[in-house]
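To: structure subgroup
Subject: Chain for Friday's discussion

All,

I'm putting the inputs and outputs inline so they're searchable in the archive.
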Amino acid sequence: MPKRFLDTSIFPDYDGGTDIDKDTGLPIMHTAFRIMVADEFSDCVRRGKNWALLKSDADNLKKANSDLGRLFGDMVIRYGAAMATNSVSELNLSKDTKIFAARPSTGGADEVEIWLFDLEDKEMGGLRERLLRHVNRNFPIEEPNFTFSTTADIVTSRDGQVRDLIKSAREYMHSSHERGSKLIAYDEFNKVNAIVDDMVKKEKDRKDISRLDLRAIRGLKGSTDMKKYMLETFGDGRSSTGLLGAVFSLIELEAKIEEGSEVAIARKDELLREIETKQSPVRD
């Protein structure tokens, strides 16, 4: 985290201190930390101030662990965290901006969550592009043959996908008692988290789909062959529901395309566009 922002991030003191993740050096977002950040979110929404949430997930961790070992996998985790936090250090933010960076307590060790509160209006312009240009940068190496990369996305208080949600929450806060305001704020805080989680997962699915050899998959026989192929390709025999659903749809369309179906060609293009566009929120 940039040194000039260190005094703006307050970490809770509970059970003898904040739990720090050994690989990333980031605090782990256990319940006390999460409630504190949700309170900051509530205060920011109530005052009508700008905020943003960046979430990132290091790519190919399972493949790194299975092919190159756990120590190399730890390097993948550190790379992802460094790219996410460094993306914030590249921004010229005011000292009043509050920044909370943490590793979620649920999910993978390769995930990073960064909240930005009290952003100035001038800082909101192009914020998403500036952050993602840095955090989504790839770093290939030759020995071993591996590319370090992350998948990330961001939602801000100005995005159309959350504007109505935040507006209704703010109206409720001003008409409700303090306890009710905190409850609705925590609920909206979780909803925003879920929105960005879904965006990142869809983008990771899109990346994974681009790595698949559909012709090879068509020759697989049964779930055992499919699991083996997934293990060799991704380092894990399991896959997300979204990835598998898209894979089977594309395989079916590929077969029809070979038969000369123009409808299948159009549907394949449509499906690929859906995978591409569902990753990002609605924006003006």
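Points worth raising on Friday:
The chain is about 55% helix and 15% strand.
The radius of gyration is 21 Å.

D.
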